[in-house]
Amino acid sequence: MNNAVAGFSKLSKEEKINWIAKEYFSTPTEAIALLKNYWNTDEKIQNLHDEFIENTITNFYIPLGVAPNFLINGKYSTIPMAIEESSVVAAASKAAKFWSTRGGFKASIINTEKNGQVHFIYKGDVSKLALFFAQTKATFFSETESITKNMQKRGGGILDIALNDKTNLLENYYQLHATFETKDSMGANFINSCLEQFAKTLKNEALQYDLFTDAEKDIQVVMSILSNYVPNCIVRAEVSCPVADLKEKQIENPLDFAERFVQAVQIAEVEPYRAVTHNKGIMNGIDAVVLATGNDFRAVEAGIHAYAAKSGQYSSLSHAKVENGIFSFWLEIPLALGTVGGLTSLHPLVKLSLEMLEKPTAQELMQFVAVAGLAQNFAALRSLTTTGIQDGHMKMHLNNILNQFDATDTERITVRAHFKQNAITHSAVVALIEQIRQ
Ligand code: MEV
User: Fold this and answer.
1) For a substitution probing ligand 1, which of 83, 384, 394, 396 has the most ligand atoms within 8 Å of its CB?
2) CB 312 within 8 A of CB 411
3) Which pLDDT belongs to residue 332?
4) Which residues pair with 331 in a beta bridge?
5) Domains in the chain, please, with CATH?
6) Torsion of CA 38, 40, 41, 43, to 10 degrees
7) Residue of 128, 200, 203, 280 with catalytic role
8) Within 13 Å, how many C-alpha atoms sit on residue 270's CB side?
9) 96 near 71, Cβ under 8 Å?
C-alpha cells in the first residue's frame, strides 16, 4: 500500500525523487540513477526545464528529427519535427522530395482571427440586455486599453465584441463573444486578460445601469476564457500536378493511382471510422512541428478535430480531385500558433527549430505546419493505396526491435539482410536474434 504525501510540492527535487523511489520502486537506487541519468549536465539548461512545470523530476526525451527538401511557395525549407513514432519523419521527407519535382507545396493564409467568451447568467428582459450592451460596448474597449496598448502597437488587438443569446441552449445563458488579432503571438494570455477585464466591466456596468431591475443587475459571470476552436484562423496547403507526372517507381499507372487516392480521401470524407485515422495521420505531421516549435499541441488538436466535425459529422480534413487531367490534393485547417512569447524564446531547442525555419512569423509557421500535415497525409495514403502501410512501418519497427535487443553491428547486418527477403514480424525478428545468439 502506498502512502499519501503532504507538502510534496515544497520538497526539493532530490527529496521528491527519493520519496518516489522509496514509495514505488523495488530497486530505489536504480530508479534514482535512471531519473538522474536524464538530467542535463549543464545546470543552467536543467534549471530552465525544471521550471517549465511543477514537480519536475527529470526530462522526458522525444527525438527531434528534420524533414528536408520542402519546396513551399517556391522556397526550400527543412522542417523540424519532434515525435516518438517511427516512419513519420521518413514519410514527410519522402513526400517533400516527391512534390519538390512536381511544383512543390502552395500554402496560404485565409484568415487569422482568434476568439474568446465571457459566459454569464442573466435573469431578465433580453431586449434590455441588448440595449445595455449597445450603450456600454465602448466601455469594454476603453477599460482594456492598458492591456491592448502593446498588442495594438504590433498591429493587433480586440476586433469586436458581440452579445450572444444562448438561452435556447441553456436557461438564462448569454455570452460576450470577442474576436482578436494577436499577430505573432498565440495570444492566450492576452485574450484571457482582456476577457477577465470584460467580465469585470460587465458586472460593474450592469450594477450601475438604471434600466435594470435588481435581479437584472445581478449578472453572474460563470467563466471567461479563450476558445481553442478557431474556425476563422485558417491556413490552406495544397499540391497539384498533371496526373501523368505522378508516375514513379511505386506508381506505374498514375491515373489508376490518382483515382484510388481520390477514393481513399472520399472514404474519409463520408466514413467517420476512417476519417479519424486519416486525420490522425495528418496530425502526425502537424503535432510534430507544433511541438518542435514550442506551441500548444493540445490546443491545436482540440481545435482541428472540432473543425473536422463542423458539419455535424466528423470528416476528413483533406480533399482530393482529378479534374481535366490535373490531380489536386489540399487541406484547410484552423491553427492558433505563436512565434513569440510562451516557450519560443525560453526552450533552447524551440529557438533552434524556429531559427531553422528562418524565424517565421506566426502566419509563416501556420503554413509550415499545414504543409507538414498534408505531406504526412499524402505519404500515408500513397502507401495505403499502393504497397500497404506495414511495409515501411515494419522496416522502421525492425530498427526498434534491434535496439530493444541491443543488437551488435554484425547482428544488425545479418538480421537486415534476412528481412530483405522475408516478411518482418515482431516474433520472426526476435526468433532470428535468439537463433543468432545461440
Ligand atoms: C499512423 O500513425 C497513421 C496512419 O494510420 C494514417 C492513415 O491511416 O491515413 C498510417
Assistant:
1) 384
2) no
3) 98
4) 237, 318
5) 8-50 (no CATH), 72-107+236-387 (3.90.770.10), 114-226 (3.30.70.420), 392-437 (no CATH)
6) -140
7) 280
8) 5
9) yes
Name 326's bridge partners: 242, 323
Q: Is 382 in the pocket of ligand 1 (CB under 6 A)?
A: no
Q: Is 399 within 8 Å of 428 (Cβ atoms)?
A: no
Whether ligand 1 lies within 6 angstroms of the CB of 284 is answered as: yes
Question: Closest Cα partner for 79 from 284, 385, 346, 365?
Answer: 365
**Phi, psi values for residue 351, rounded to 5°:** -60, -45
- Find all residues with CB under 8 Å of 214, minimum gap 6, and list them: none
Residues whose CB falls within 8 Å of the CB of residue 155, separated by 6 or more in sequence, listed in order: 181, 183
Nearest Cα to Cα of residue 105 among 139, 137, 71: 71
Question: pLDDT tens, 144-154?
Answer: 999 999 999 99
85 as an active site residue: the answer is: yes
Distance CA 212, CA 203 (A): 12
**Residues contacting residue 169 through CB under 8 Å, at least 6 positions apart:** none
* Alpha carbon of 91 to ligand 1 centroid (Å): 11
Give the residue among 298, 297, 367, 360 at the shortest CA–CA distance from 331.
367
The whole-chain average pLDDT of the chain stands at 96
Given pLDDT bands bounded at 50, 70 and 90, which one contains residue 375?
A: very high
- Output the CA angle 391-405-92, nearest 5 degrees: 35
Q: How far apart are CA 427 and CA 175, in angstroms?
A: 58
Instruction: State the pTM of this model.
Output: 0.92
CA 127 centroid distance within chain: 41
